[in-house]
């Protein structure tokens, strides 16, 4: 009998939805939906599952009959999953996207313009305003910062103590420390994977270089500038000239050094706070993790700026219940929901005032990241950045060629041309 | 149960007229019956093969991307032959096409040669030994493409791969030095060498088993005869085995070409993402444009797929022509 009732009810809901759906008007779904689905990037961990149980409890105070279904989408599959959802597959109501992908999905019509809803939500005023700005496209708000994360330098504190050295604070010290580790331990001192735009960017920025700049509405690649080229050559040289970073990391991203770090096979590498959970899973001897400490990323001289990583919450454009989905988004993104998720996932909350909290300052790993949070930069804010980076792999590809021994000047000339062209493509 | 050739050749007795249908002129029925029988199969073929191909060609002539997928989105716009024009004037595409053909020829050549040799070996071995070797081969054949590719990737890893360590252990005057850190997965030549090794390793068992089956059907007297004429193994292969098995070889060759043109999984694992355009093959390029690009370019992906489909159709048509000409389709 129950199935009959459910069927009748869902038919009614369907009728209601179709009656007032269409045209994307915001009147749809004033009814409470049976369930809302959230897509989150990454892999399901117990702490994150628990977070969503709590969110569901909080959400049900207002929507007692609505369940919150969460699906974890691995970062690498995000592009395809979202595309499939648009093509009429199973689609989410609330979607997490990387903060550098908001403009891209907005331009594709995958996520909803939430400017009017954002204006009525007080919490936005307390968020990191640069991150809020990064969630806009074409003057409208599409994404709300959910958490932020920066990469820092991870190092083996016990090895450095044995050597009587401190964590490196600039490039010279980085080379020095890495060489000392290799001499002492016979494992590579530092990892410089080539498919690692987020890390390479820190080297470029710290040397006063830029990846690309916008001048009068036109993007200009900056890979050929002296500062950028010097930084890229330094990074490539860590592998090709100094033999500090092993050949095994050429053509790889940071996940390979992550596994090595967890197993005492490398002395230092750059990654974010979220890497610790993965390291715990991959470490054969958990004692190694006790010895891993973090420091701000060393730059040409002093701390390097890091990419202000993080994610934004968006409403998926095909949702039938934008109002209910928005309420779920604010439950996840307000000060409670935002902070809880950051803590569960090894990130930082999107509210700068919280960064001075005791808990972020007392844990040395977090303190290093909190320090790094004060020195961040963003990638070019254009929908074409994804085409240039995740798809075109322009910077990683150039790095790969230079490490393989091709002439840096020619490679960067070519890459810069491609970058400028890609960033200026009309958004189709 | 498929009817044997013998049964088909035998005169089938005239069937009684169907009850209740009234008498029908026999000749008309004998004309339409084959078409009626083949009808359902043809309908399914059109549905699963022809229609998607028509769709693909349509996609390749339009600007088609993610935004066109949305409900109430604009329909994709006709763009003339822009995708094809861009492809044919793009040196990158020609390089990928060339690599695809060269790599495919090497894969097919390696697989056919090794498969045939092993097939002949199996034919000569004592029974129990032949069975043992066959079981080993079947395991290689049954390994999923992803597993096989991962295993090969591990074998060739810098500093840890068995191959790198082994080459490093060999004396320098034999293989040169610096093998331990050698990265096989960056340049086209070493990467494609590993790729060809994976493919040959996975596909020669099929050829070997097919050749073995063919060899068993060749009368022993023929070999006796050439031996009396004083021919060695080489001559007897080219004078007896090859002509006798020519149709089988033609079929295996075409199947192998079609399979090897479409190689994707193995390359996906070995090349490790899409960062290195110099190691693309056509199938990989299709996927990159159609699924991994940001935003996905369905039009361009389809255009490349059309090029590849044409290549495969040409190979198939050529094979059918040979078969029909030789009258060996029976």
From TrEMBL, chain A:
InterPro entries: SBP. One of its GO terms (biological process) is maltose transport. Residues 1-21 form the signal peptide. One of its GO terms (molecular function) is maltose binding. Keywords: Signal, Transport. One of its GO terms (cellular component) is ATP-binding cassette (ABC) transporter complex, substrate-binding subunit-containing. Belongs to the bacterial solute-binding protein 1 family. This is N,N'-diacetylchitobiose transport system substrate-binding protein. It comes from Streptomonospora salina.
Automatic annotation (TrEMBL), chain B:
It is a multi-pass membrane protein. Residues 1-28 are annotated as: Disordered. Keywords: Cell membrane, Membrane, Transmembrane, Transmembrane helix, Transport. The keyword Membrane applies. Gene3D superfamilies: MetI-like. GO terms for cellular component: plasma membrane. This is N,N'-diacetylchitobiose transport system permease protein. It comes from Streptomonospora salina. The lineage of its organism: Bacteria, Bacillati, Actinomycetota, Actinomycetes, Streptosporangiales.
């Amino acid at each position: 009998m129950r199935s009959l009732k459910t069927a009748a009810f869902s038919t009614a809901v369907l009728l209601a939805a179709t009656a007032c759906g269409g045209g994307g008007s915001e009147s749809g779904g004033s009814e409470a939906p049976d369930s809302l689905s959230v897509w989150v990037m990454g892999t399901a961990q117990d702490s994150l599952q628990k977070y969503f149980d709590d969110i569901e409890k909080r959400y049900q105070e207002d929507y007692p009959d609505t369940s919150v279904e969460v699906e974890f989408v691995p970062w690498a599959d995000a592009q395809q999953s979202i595309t499939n959802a648009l093509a009429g597959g199973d689609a989410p109501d609330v979607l997490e996207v990387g903060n550098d992908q908001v403009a891209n999905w907005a331009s594709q019509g995958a996520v909803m313009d939430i400017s009017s809803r954002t204006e009525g939500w007080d919490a936005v005023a307390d968020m990191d305003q640069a991150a809020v700005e990064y969630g806009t496209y074409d003057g409208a708000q599409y994404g709300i910062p959910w958490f932020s994360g920066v990469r820092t330098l991870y190092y083996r504190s016990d090895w450095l103590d044995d050597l009587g050295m401190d964590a490196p604070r600039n490039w010279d010290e980085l080379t020095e420390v890495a060489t000392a580790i290799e001499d002492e331990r016979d494992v590579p001192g530092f990892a410089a994977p080539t498919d690692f735009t987020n890390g390479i960017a820190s080297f470029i920025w710290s040397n006063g270089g830029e990846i690309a700049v916008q001048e009068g509405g036109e993007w200009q690649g900056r890979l050929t500038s002296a500062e950028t080229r010097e930084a890229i050559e330094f990074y490539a040289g860590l592998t090709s000239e100094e033999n500090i970073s092993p050949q095994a990391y050429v053509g790889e991203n940071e996940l390979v050094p992550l596994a090595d770090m967890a197993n005492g096979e490398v002395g230092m590498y750059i990654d974010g706070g979220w890497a610790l959970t993965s390291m715990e899973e991959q470490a054969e001897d958990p004692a190694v993790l006790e010895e891993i400490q973090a420091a701000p990323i060393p730059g040409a001289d002093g701390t390097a700026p890091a990419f202000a990583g993080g994610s934004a919450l968006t409403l998926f454009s095909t949702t039938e219940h934008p109002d209910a989905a928005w309420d779920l988004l604010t439950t996840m993104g307000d000060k409670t929901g935002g902070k809880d998720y950051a803590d569960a996932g090894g990130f930082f909350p999107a509210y700068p005032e919280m960064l001075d909290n005791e808990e972020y300052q007392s844990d040395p790993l977090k303190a290093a990241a909190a320090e790094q949070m004060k020195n961040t930069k963003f990638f070019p804010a254009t929908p074409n950045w994804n085409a240039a980076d995740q798809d075109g792999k322009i910077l990683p590809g150039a790095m790969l060629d230079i490490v393989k021994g091709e002439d840096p000047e020619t490679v960067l000339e070519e890459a810069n041309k491609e970058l400028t062209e890609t960033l200026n493509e009309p958004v189709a | 149960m498929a009817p044997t050739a013998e049964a088909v050749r035998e005169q089938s007795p005239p069937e009684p007229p169907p009850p209740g249908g009234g008498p029908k002129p026999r000749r008309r029925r004998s004309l339409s019956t084959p078409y009626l029988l083949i009808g359902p199969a043809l309908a399914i073929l059109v549905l699963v093969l022809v229609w998607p191909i028509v769709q693909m060609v349509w996609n390749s002539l339009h600007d088609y991307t993610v935004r066109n997928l949305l409900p109430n989105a604009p329909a994709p716009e006709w763009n003339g032959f822009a995708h094809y024009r861009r492809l044919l004037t793009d040196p990158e595409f020609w390089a990928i096409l060339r690599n695809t053909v060269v790599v495919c020829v090497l894969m097919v050549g390696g697989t056919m040669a090794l498969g045939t040799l092993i097939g002949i070996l199996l034919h000569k071995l004592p029974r129990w030994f032949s069975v043992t070797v066959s079981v080993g081969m079947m395991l290689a054949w049954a390994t999923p493409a992803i597993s096989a590719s991962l295993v090969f990737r591990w074998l060739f890893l810098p500093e840890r791969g068995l191959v790198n360590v082994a080459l490093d252990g060999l004396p320098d005057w034999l293989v040169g030095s610096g093998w331990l850190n050698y990265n096989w997965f960056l340049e086209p030549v070493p990467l494609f060498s590993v790729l060809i090794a994976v493919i040959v390793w996975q596909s020669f068992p099929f050829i070997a088993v097919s050749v073995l089956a063919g060899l068993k059907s060749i009368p022993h007297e023929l070999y006796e005869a050439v031996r009396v004429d004083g021919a060695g193994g080489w001559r007897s292969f080219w004078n007896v085995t090859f002509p006798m098995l020519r149709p089988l070889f033609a079929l295996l060759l075409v199947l192998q070409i079609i399979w090897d043109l479409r190689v994707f999984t193995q390359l996906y694992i070995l090349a490790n993402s899409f960062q290195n355009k110099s190691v693309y093959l056509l199938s990989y390029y299709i996927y990159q444009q159609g699924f991994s690009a940001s935003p996905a370019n369905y039009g361009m992906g389809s255009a490349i797929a059309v090029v590849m489909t044409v290549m495969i159709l040409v190979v198939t048509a050529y094979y059918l022509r040979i078969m029909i000409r030789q009258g060996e389709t029976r």
